Amino acid sequence: MASHSVYKDRSFIATIGDEDTITGLLLAGTGHIDGRGKKNFLVVDSKTAVSTIESAFAEFTERQDIAIVLINQHVADQIRPLVDKYEQAFPALLEIPSKDHPYDPSKDSVLKRVKKLFGE
Fold it and tell me: Architecture of 4-117 per CATH?
């Protein structure tokens, strides 16, 4: 088991989602931009390329300062193979609903793994 010191620097929540979700989470204080302009969020709209979402997902899941990655489920659907393949404990990956797209538990990669563990 890894020691606590490995995870102590993970202090940020990264978010990939639509404008309403990102705005709400930024207003809640989750946003961070470091001195080099590196953000911990990505606003996705209909013009956002899938490659941009994929690269943000890869960056956020590899960063050592991020503890949780929140992603709107409808955005996760655009990169579903990457999301389903992700199995690391940190940063934790959570799919969340958006204002216009309700949450569907049958699509959630974490719940799929839990069901598989319990043989359902």
Answer: 3-Layer(aba) Sandwich (3.40)
The position carrying tokens 């390329």 is 49
Write the pLDDT tens digit of every residue in 72-118: 999 999 999 999 999 898 999 999 999 999 888 888 888 877 777 78
Distance CA 96, CA 91 (A): 15
Handedness of CA 35, 11, 117, 110 (dihedral sign): negative
Residue 10 contacts residue 64 (beta carbons within 8 Å):
yes
- d(CA 1, CA 6) in angstroms, rounded, equals 11
Three-state DSSP at 41 gives strand
Predicted structure pTM score? 0.86
Distance between CA 84 and CA 67 in Å, rounded? Answer: 18
